[in-house]
Amino acid sequence: MRYLTAGESHGPELTGIIDGLPAGLPLSEDAISRQLFRRQQGYGRGGRMAFEQDKAQIVSGVRFGKTMGHPVALKMINRAYHKDKDNWPVVMSSVPVKDQIEKITLPRPGHADLVGVQKFRFDDIRPVIERSSARETAMRVACCAAARELLGFFGIQIGGHIIQIGESGYASWEAVRDTADPVISEGGNALSETADKSEVRCIDSGISEQMVAEIKKRRKDGSSLGGIYEIVVTGLPAGIGTYTQWDRKLEGLLSQAVMSTQAMKGVEVGIGFEAGKRHGRNVHDEITWEDDQYGRRTNRAGGLEGGITTGQPLIIRGVMKPIPTMLKPLQTVDIVSKESRETRYERSDVCALPRALVVVENVIAPVLANAFLEKYGGDSVGEISERYPARN
Ligand SMILES: Cc1cc2nc3c(=O)[nH]c(=O)nc-3n(C[C@H](O)[C@H](O)[C@H](O)COP(=O)(O)O)c2cc1C
Ligand SMILES: C=C(O[C@@H]1CC(C(=O)O)=C[C@@H](OP(=O)(O)O)[C@H]1O)C(=O)O
C-alpha cells in the first residue's frame, strides 16, 4: 500500500489518498479520528490545537463500513482557515489577489524556512511554512491509521511511550532493555471513553511531573524542548521483511518512516547506539527452543535481524529536536535586505513530543503492513486470513 497527502497548513483543507488496502477491512471515520484526537493532545502543545478538531471524512473507497479494495480518499478541514475568514482565504488564495500580502522574510533556524526559499527561489517564506509544517501530519496520521487498522485486524498492535524530555527521563527503560519483554506502558496520549462512547478523553499524556515542570520552565524562558520516545509493536509474526535487497530491509524502511517525520533527528532499533559500547556476548540474543517454537532470552535486537522480524516485539526509539519557533529570538538574516535580525515569534508548540509520538506510531504502520502483505497478502482480508490463520 502507499499513500499521498496534499494541503497547506492554513489552506482550506487537507487531502489524502491511500492505495492498496485489501477489500473487506472494517474502516470507520471514528477509528481514524481516534488517532487524530490522540495526535492533538499532550502537555506542551500550542494554541492551534485548542481550536482544531481534526476529523477525517472518508470520501471514497469504503462502503457499509468496509473497504472495497479501491483507493480510499480522505479529507479534513483546517479550522484555522475557516475561523479567520478575513485573513487566510486571501493569504492562501489560489488565484492572484489585488492586495499586497505581507511577506515573511526572517527565517527561523531549525525550521525549513531558509532552505525552502533557497530551493524554490521564493522571496517570501510563507509557502515554505505552509507545507513543511507538521500540520501535514494530521492527514498523514489519518492515512496511516487505516494501515494500523489492517495490522490490528491481524492482531498486530502498536504502542508508544515517552522516555526523555530535556533533562527529565524515566530511568526504568534502561533497566529493562536486556529482558525479552519490553515494558509496554499505558502509552502516550492514552484515551478513555464513556460506555456509550459519547465522550472520549485523553487520560494520560505519558509524561512525568518532572517533565511537565521542565516544559513549564522552558516555556517561561522563551525556549522549547524535544525528547526521546520508544515504540513497541507486538503480535508481529517472524519472517516478514527481507535481507535480499538493500531497499527492502525492514530496519531501513522503518527508519525512513521515522525520520520522514518533522523534527526527528535520530532512530535506534533495539538497544541501538548502546550496542556500540558493549561486547558481543552482551548484545546478541541467545536462541532457545521451547513448546515447539524458537525463543530468545533477551530482545536487544529489538525484534529484527537481517531486516526480518524475529517474532519478538519490535522496539524502535527516536529523538525529536526542540521546536524551532521560540518566544525568545535567535539571530537570523533578512532574506531580502541580508541584514542581521532577530527571529519573530508566531504561535507555536513548546514541546510537541506527546503529539509527535502518536505521529510516529502511525507512520510506521504502512511499512509494517506492506511487509506483512508481501508475505500474506491477498485482495481481501478473507483471502489474507486463509494465508495467515494465526490471526488473534
Ligand atoms: C507534532 C509536531 C508538531 C510540531 N510543532 C511545531 C511548532 O509548533 N512550531 C515549530 O516551529 N515547529 C514545530 N514542529 C517541527 C517542525 O515542523 C519542523 O522542525 C520543520 O518542519 C523542519 O523540518 P525538520 O525539523 O524535519 O528538519 C513540529 C513537529 C511535529 C512532529
Ligand atoms: C497545526 C499543527 O501543528 C503546527 C505545526 C507547526 C510547525 O511549524 O510544524 C506550527 C504550528 O502551526 P501554527 O503556526 O498554525 O500554530 C503548529 O500548530 C498540527 O499539528 O495540526
Automatic annotation (TrEMBL):
Kindly state a single biological-process term from the GO annotations of this entry.
chorismate biosynthetic process
Q: Give the family, as the similarity comment puts it.
A: Belongs to the chorismate synthase family.
Q: Describe cofactor binding as the record notes it.
A: Reduced FMN (FMNH(2)).
Q: Name one GO cellular component term.
A: cytosol
Q: Which protein are we looking at? A: Chorismate synthase
Ligand binding (NADP(+)): 39, 45
Q: Quick check: keyword Cell wall biogenesis/degradation in the entry?
A: no
Per the record's keyword annotation, is NADP included, yes or no?
yes
Subunit annotation: Homotetramer.
**Example GO molecular function:** chorismate synthase activity
Residue span of the signal peptide, if any?
none
Record function comment: This reaction introduces a second double bond into the aromatic ring system.
* Pfam (any one): Chorismate_synt
PANTHER family assigned: CHORISMATE SYNTHASE
User: What keyword terms does UniProt attach to this protein?
Assistant: Amino-acid biosynthesis, Aromatic amino acid biosynthesis, FAD, Flavoprotein, FMN, Lyase, NADP
Q: Which organism is it from?
A: Natronogracilivirga saccharolytica
Q: What is the E.C. number?
A: 4.2.3.5
Give me the residues that bind FMN, please: 131-133, 262-263, 306, 321-325, 347
Question: Superkingdom of this entry's organism?
Answer: Bacteria
**Could you tell me which pathway this protein works in?**
Metabolic intermediate biosynthesis; chorismate biosynthesis; chorismate from D-erythrose 4-phosphate and phosphoenolpyruvate: step 7/7
Broadest EC class assigned to this enzyme:
lyase
Catalysed reaction(s) here are: 5-O-(1-carboxyvinyl)-3-phosphoshikimate = chorismate + phosphate
Its cofactor is: FMNH2
